[in-house]
Amino acid sequence: MDKLNSxxxxxxEVITQYSKLQPSHGEIxxxxxFDESQDRYSLMQIGWDKGKRIRGNLIYLTLSGEKVVIExxxxxxxxxxxxxxxxxxxxxxxxxxxxxxxxxxxx
Length: 107
Prior knowledge:
The protein is built from 2 helices and 5 strands, in the order αββββαβ. By secondary structure, it is of the alpha+beta class. The protein has one domain: TATA-Binding Protein (2-Layer Sandwich). 16% of the residues are buried.
């Protein structure tokens, strides 16, 4: 399997793993959204908590070339290490949400 296809598979596996977590409160479901044609991968939260509508991204990743770009990471512990543990090279991960000074992983 080439690098890009391997990275696609790893990203989907990691997001799917997070989608199986049960939110600690409210009636919230976690939906995976995988768009391989544009290399966009997301985990959305949808539901109700304390009478308020909950919706939005928890994770949003894109693939650009052979890089995994973490556009948004709303997970408490972060997903970066999960991606590395599954086989994505640290130098191939870009933290797009971090300032260039804070982004220790270069493009």
